[in-house]
Amino acid sequence: MTLESLYEAAFEMLTDEAMWIGFGWIIVKVILITLAAYITVIVIRVVVRKTFSVRIRGPLKYNERRQQTLSKLLENVVAYVVYFVAIIAVLSTFTIDITGLIAGAGVLGLAIGFGAQNLVRDIITGFFIIFEDQFSVGDYVRIGLAEGTVEEIGLRTTKVKAWTGELFIFPNGNVTDVVNFSIHNSIAVVDVNISYESDIAKVENLIIEFLETLQDRYEQIIKPAELLGVQNLTTTEVVMRITAETLPMQHFAIARSMRRDLKEFLDQRGVEIPYPRMVMMQRSPEASNSTAIAKK
C-alpha cells in the first residue's frame, strides 16, 4: 500500500458522513447518560433527606442521630450505585461487551476481596457501627487518643473533628474502643472554696437558695442541682461540691455559668471566697537586742 493510497483511505474515513453521525450520537448519548446520572443522584439525595426529616416516634435525640447517620450513608451508597450503572451504560455505547466485563469484574472482585481483607473488614465494621448505633453523626466521642464530634460515617472511614479544628480519619476496622459522651445526660461538677472563718451552715443554706433558681435560668439543666456537702478540707479553705444533671455535652458551659453566678451571689451576701495571703512580721531593733541578751 502506497502513501497515496493511505492518504485516500484517511480522507474517505474523515469525510464519511455516516461515521461522523454515529460518533456524534455516541457523544450525545455519553452526555445524556452523565447528566441523567448527575440529576438522579441529586434527586435521590433530596428524597432521602426529606424522608429522614420526618419525625418518627421515640426519643427525639436518638431519631435525629440515626437520621443524620443513615442519611449520609444512603446518599453515599446511592451515588456509588448510580455512577457504576452510568459507567456501564457509557461503555455499552462504545459497543464494548458488558457481559464479559461484568464477569471479569466479578472474578477481579473476588481476587481483590482475598487481597484487600482490611477493606472488607472496614466496610463490615462500619455497617455494624451504624446497625448497633454505637455512635452517630453529631455525637461527641473519644476513639483512642482522638476526641471530638463525629462529622461523617462512611462505608470505609469515620471522621472525627476535634474542638480545636483537627480532623481525625479512622478506618472503621480500627475503631475498637469508643467512648460516646452524647447518649446519656452529663453531670456538671462545681467546687466552691469557702474560708475557714465562714459559717458553714449559713453558706450551705445560701448555696441551696441559689441552686433553686438554676432550672428557671438554664433550660439545659434536667434535674434540680444538688449540694453534696463538704468535699475536701485543705490547709487554706473548705471545698464544697455542687452537681447538676444537664443535657449531653452541656455540662462544661453550665459549670462555667454556675461558677460566675455563684460568685456574684455569694459576694452580694458577704461570703468571702478565700485567696492566697502573705503575712509579714517585722521585728524592732530593741526586740532583737533583748532576744540576744536573753540568750546570753
UniProtKB/TrEMBL annotation:
For this protein, the record's InterPro entries field holds: LSM_dom_sf, MS_channel_1st, MS_channel_C, MscS_beta-dom_sf, MscS_channel_2nd, MscS_channel_C_sf, MscS_channel_TM-2, YbiO_bact
Which SUPFAM superfamilies does the entry link to? Mechanosensitive channel protein MscS (YggB), C-terminal domain, Mechanosensitive channel protein MscS (YggB), transmembrane region, Sm-like ribonucleoproteins
Sequence intervals crossing the membrane: 20-48, 73-94, 100-120
Q: Which residues form the Mechanosensitive ion channel MscS C-terminal domain?
A: 189-273
Its annotated compartments are: Cell membrane
Going by the entry's taxonomy, the superkingdom of the source organism is recorded as Bacteria
**Which Pfam families does the record cross-reference, listed alphabetically?**
MS_channel_1st (PF21088), MS_channel_2nd (PF00924), MS_channel_3rd (PF21082)
Q: Which UniProt keywords apply?
A: Cell membrane, Membrane, Transmembrane, Transmembrane helix
Q: Which Gene3D superfamilies match?
A: 1.10.287.1260, 2.30.30.60, 3.30.70.100
Q: List residues of the Mechanosensitive ion channel MscS domain.
A: 118-182
Family classification: Belongs to the MscS (TC 1.A.23) family.
Q: What is this protein called?
A: Mechanosensitive ion channel family protein
| Species, as recorded | Metaplanococcus flavidus
